[in-house]
TrEMBL record, chain A:
InterPro entries: FetB, UPF0014_fam
Protein name in the entry: Iron export ABC transporter permease subunit FetB
Membrane topology reported for the UniProt record: Multi-pass membrane protein
The family this protein is said to belong to: Belongs to the UPF0014 family.
Pfam family, one: UPF0014
NCBIfam families: iron efflux ABC transporter permease subunit FetB
Keywords: Membrane, Transmembrane, Transmembrane helix
Source organism superkingdom: Bacteria
Compartment annotation: Membrane
Signal peptide as annotated in the record: none
Record-linked PANTHER family: PROTEIN ALUMINUM SENSITIVE 3, UPF0014 INNER MEMBRANE PROTEIN YBBM-RELATED
Membrane-crossing residue ranges in chain numbering: 6-24, 36-58, 64-81, 93-116, 122-145, 191-209, 215-241
Taxon lineage: Bacteria, Pseudomonadati, Pseudomonadota, Gammaproteobacteria, Enterobacterales
Main location: membrane
UniProtKB/TrEMBL annotation, chain B:
CDD domains xref list: ABCC_MRP_Like (cd03228)
Keywords carried by this UniProt record: ATP-binding, Cell inner membrane, Cell membrane, Membrane, Nucleotide-binding, Translocase, Transport
Protein name: Iron ABC transporter ATP-binding protein FetA
Record-stated family: Belongs to the ABC transporter superfamily. Drug exporter-2 (TC 3.A.1.117) family.
GO molecular function, one term: ATP binding
Ranges for domain ABC transporter: 8-222
Segment forming the signal sequence: none
NCBIfam families: PRK10247.1
Organism: Pantoea trifolii
Length: 253, 222
């Protein structure tokens, strides 16, 4: 396997790309210069910290520490997904349960099938990919639920006034929200390899792995992303919709 | 069957939102076979009162008894099947008229019979072939009639009508009013409706005029 090391000087030179973005922002008066500088600084600091933290965890190779790191990833993903919960109370708990369940189940299947080994070097990056995807899907699911419940207030109330249970009155909107939340993952799977060479596969090819072997990992990633997105959004949607009603089956908002 | 308590007993019900009173205290009583008309200026809380009676909104004060039981202690779904609210402009579900008329059956986990659905269409002067008609092909009056029939598939004890005839032409108004009148007379349906129509108000058995809540009034039957 050929080693590819990016040198500090080449990294610095690639900073030119950010300068181009800043120049465009200035020239076109986009007002994004501060945002660009802030996001680049955050990315550098976060990645440097993560790099050293991961190196230490990989060196220690401790099972509990690995589990703790997976939980840390899930907590952060849930904190981010919660931002889209708006009218849904307990957004963090719902996101955490949905993301952690999806991540745990997918990891378990990958481990039991022997696709990956329980070592931090494999479990942690895979967890990040799974939880990150679940985070986006759960966040989208929350946004969609809020939007659909607000747009279809009268329809829901009409169902309720006919004596329908809240689950029945919400079913269509839950289904639509889950579907909309899964579209990016499903569409991503449809175009994988055609539009972009995804991260896992690109990384392996970069590291000198035979592309034919690299696709096996990418296929596994595709499976796990679809599985996690569907499981996490279903859990999130069914835990969240009830929060849009009072205990007396009235719409809260 | 006569009882010594009214079918619906509304006692000093109020509604406020974010500190602003939207419905001044209302008290009213309604028995089976009675028809009450709510009138009053815009903003007096007529629709709000109907939605509270339908348990779609929670009152800020007062209480409502249905058959002498506080509705807060009743199972909401069962209560709503007995006290049914019909919207001013009903939104129809699914693709066809059938989907809408079958819905109350599905809610009760029963299979609708096409004959019964066709029969109910005849009650509001709609032909049998209307059952499979797409909802986007219906006129405003037809939609309103289908919306009302949806509430009447299983006859409730109280029907709450939120200006259901306000946007309709004379022909549709007559059809809907005739159906309601016959249900009140023959099946002892109790009805609370909202109307601004002078003729409907003159002909009504009972009228309750709600006052704008700003005036600090209470709304009680004369």
């Amino acid at each position: 396997m050929s080693q590819h090391n990016i040198t500090d000087s080449s990294l610095l030179l690639s900073l030119l790309l950010v300068v181009i973005a800043l120049l465009i922002s200035q020239k076109e008066k986009l007002g994004m210069s501060k945002d660009i500088i802030w996001s680049v600084c955050r990315a550098i600091i976060q990645l440097v910290i993560v790099g050293y933290v991961l190196k230490s965890i990989f060196d220690l190779n401790n099972d509990w520490l690995t589990v703790l790191m997976v939980l840390f990833i899930c907590v952060n993903a849930a904190l981010n997904a919660r931002k889209r919960s708006l009218n849904i109370s307990n957004g963090f708990v719902i996101s955490f349960v949905a993301i952690t369940t999806g991540t745990t189940l997918t990891l378990t299947i990958l481990l039991l099938s022997g696709a990956i080994e329980f070592i931090p070097m494999q479990v942690i990056p895979i967890s990040g990919m799974i939880a990150g995807n679940a985070m986006v899907a759960v966040g989208l699911c929350f946004s969609n639920l809020n939007q659909r419940f607000s747009d279809n207030r009268q329809k829901i109330q009409e169902m309720l006034s006919l004596g329908a249970p809240v689950k029945m009155a919400s079913a269509r909107f839950i289904r639509d929200s889950v579907r909309a939340a899964m579209i990016p993952t499903v569409d991503g799977a449809k175009t994988v390899g055609l539009v972009s060479l995804p991260g896992m596969m690109s990384g392996l090819i970069f590291a000198g792995i035979d592309p034919v072997k690299a696709i096996k990992y990418q296929i596994m990633v595709t499976f796990m992303l679809i599985g996690t997105a569907s499981l996490s959004t279903i859990i999130a949607a069914y835990l969240a919709y009830r929060r849009l009603y009072t205990a007396r089956a009235q719409l809260k908002f | 069957m006569t009882t010594d308590y009214p079918l619906l007993d509304v006692q000093g019900v109020t509604f406020s939102l974010q500190g602003r009173m939207l419905l001044a205290p209302v008290s009213l009583q309604l028995n089976a076979g009675e028809r009450l008309l709510l009138t009053g200026p815009s903003g007096s809380g007529k629709s709000t009162l109907l939605k509270i009676l339908a348990t779609l909104l929670e009152p800020s004060g007062g209480q409502i008894l249905f058959k002498n039981q506080n509705i807060a202690s009743l199972k909401t779904e069962h209560y709503r099947q007995q006290v049914s609210y019909c919207f001013q402009t009903p939104q129809l579900f699914g693709d066809t008229v059938y989907d809408n008329l079958a819905l109350p059956w599905h809610i009760r986990q029963q299979k609708p019979s096409r004959d019964k659905l066709v029969e109910s269409l005849a009650d509001v002067h709609l032909a049998a072939d209307m059952l499979d008609k797409k909802i986007e092909q219906l006129s405003g009056g037809e939609k309103q009639r289908v919306g009302l029939l949806r509430n009447l598939q299983f006859l409730p004890q109280v029907l709450l009508l939120d200006e259901v005839t306000s946007a309709l032409d004379e022909e549709n108004k007559v059809i809907i009013n005739a159906l309601i009148d016959s249900l009140v007379r023959e099946k002892h349906l109790a009805v609370i409706g909202i109307s601004h129509d002078g003729q409907e108000i003159r002909e009504a058995q009972q009228v309750l005029k709600l006052e704008a809540p700003e005036q600090g009034t209470t709304n009680e039957p004369a």
